[in-house]
Design brief:
Blueprint: H1 12-23, E1 26-27, H2 39-50, H3 66-80, E2 90-93, H4 95-107, E3 113-118, H5 124-130, E4 134-139, E5 141-142, E6 150-151, E7 155-156, H6 159-165, E8 170-176, H7 188-201, E9 204-208, E10 234-239, H8 240-243, E11 252-255, H9 258-271, H10 277-293, H11 300-321, E12 325-328, E13 334-338, H12 356-367, E14 370-371, E15 390-394, H13 399-410
Parallel strand pairs: 1-14, 3-4, 3-8, 6-12, 8-9, 9-10
Antiparallel strand pairs: 2-11, 5-7, 10-11, 12-13, 13-15
Helix pairs in contact: 2-10, 3-10, 4-5, 4-9, 11-13
The chain binds 4'-deoxy-4'-aminopyridoxal-5'-phosphate and glutamine.
The site of glutamine has 5 residues, from loops.
Domain Aminotransferase class I/classII large: 25-401
Cofactor: pyridoxal 5'-phosphate
EC number: 2.6.1.7
Length: 413
Amino acid sequence: YFPRLQGAEKNMWKEYAQLAEEYKPVNLGLGFPDFSPPKFITDALSEVLKSNNPYLHQYAKPNGHVRLVNVLAKLYSKLLLREIDPDTEILATLGASEALFCAVSGLVDQGDEVIIIEPYFDVYVPLIKMAGGTPRFIALKPKPSTNNLSSSADWSFDVKELESLFNEKTKVIIVNTPNNPLGKVFDRSELTLIADLCKKWDVVCITDEVYEWMVFKPKEHIRMAGLPGMWERTVTVGSAGKTFCMTGWKVGWVYGPTRLLRSLQIVHQSAVFSGSTIEQEAVAVAFERELSLLGQNGSYFKKLEEGLRSKRDFMVKILLDTKMKPVIPDGGIFVIADWSQLESLVDLNSESDHNKDFRFTKWMVKNIGLQGIPPTVFYNENNKKIIENYVRFCFIKEEANLVKAQEALNRLK
Ligand code: PMP
Ligand code: GLN
């Protein structure tokens, strides 16, 4: 491999998908819903297919299918209280994954430094290295908790440590709120601190907000691009796969000022030219519906939050019942839990992986029929110790499958 690909050869997602195929556990590993997306969106896709408009089967405009970028512009104009230009300030992509690829490739150059907050969605690092950049890490650390009920809000960064990472080589900081895997929703004061450092050091913020509609009340999702002076230096990534529970569609987007988006558009048009027109049309129809219902009772976003909050609560309860210590998430679709109190029940020597969380999660799949994700993949080598006694579970699952997870966890008692 070229040096820029080194370190990314081993992919936990592939390895764990293989394990799931082989052992058929209750799968709370990879982050995907095990139920169908809402009917209004599958209906919208059926309508597209029935339509006799031949253009819906041809290339979309490279920056995005017109109907989709128009409705996204309307939605985010409303949420950010500024006029967003659908032609130059939005780019539709193949999932948030491609949006992140375009953002990093377009904004990071050889020798640039990129600050990442741990735990971080693991692909950020290979993307930065492929662009010739160097990741610099800062870990969120938990406040010592006095009882079993710790919250993702208890995990925070040290301000002095963050300040010390910024220097003249710093080009970008990546923020992910709500965070995968912790479920932390960054509050206004934390985001403002980051924003002030971006302004001071002339740094661009890539903000990954794929779980923006999955923030549990009373917490609120704050958009970095909406903070004073931040529109000009922020690109925001979103995902229809996450938003509408259809991760296989791979429709995403990124919005930001024309000055920055231009570079991302060049990467996108060179790599893929345009995304799937029929999918973008159906996603546009779904967003038009949501835009007209925003904040009202019929809103799907509202139902999504309520449904997910009760799944979160159930998951927390079953983890506490087995003596795992969950970190209660304020958003997203994952919960991490500390399993160290169960260590004596588990044969960690049956696996040979270096990190304990890999050994624990492999043991779980093979012995109690439950899959979770080893969270050390979300930390760099020096900080893996912080998270080695934890496991990540995905809870955006049918109730019946969460009950099966409970039954599996009961085998640990
Ligand atoms: N960012 C984060 C934080 C994610 O968790 C994921 C996928 N789970 C993505 C980006 C990629 O999203 P997509 O499936 O739309 O490519
Ligand atoms: N983001 C998914 C998760 O965290 C994994 C799939 C991927 O995009 N790598 O489970």
